[in-house]
Write a structure and sequence with these properties.
Elements (H helix, E strand, L loop, with lengths): L11 H11 L14 E4 L5 E5 L2 H8 L3 H8 L10 E4 L2
Antiparallel strand pairs: 1-2, 1-3
Length: 87
Amino acid sequence: MSASGRKKVLTEKHKERVSAALKGKYLGRDNWNSKAVMQFTIGGELVREWYGVAAICRETGYSLSSIYACLEGRSKYSHGYLWKYKK
């Protein structure tokens, strides 16, 4: 907010320039906040290693909250798999 208490109004040109500058950044392994996640079968076999939960949801359509529930120990499995953070 500006000093007058009103929201700063951004032009469409400015929004496009910022969007173009950030496009493709901070996704997957480039995101400093992402934690690697490992996907296991119920039998314990490693299926795939992912760069983060958002990448899993984008590619598979799985529910973000159910994967987090498994990662945080609130549920045992999610979408038929066991999920663990990579150490």
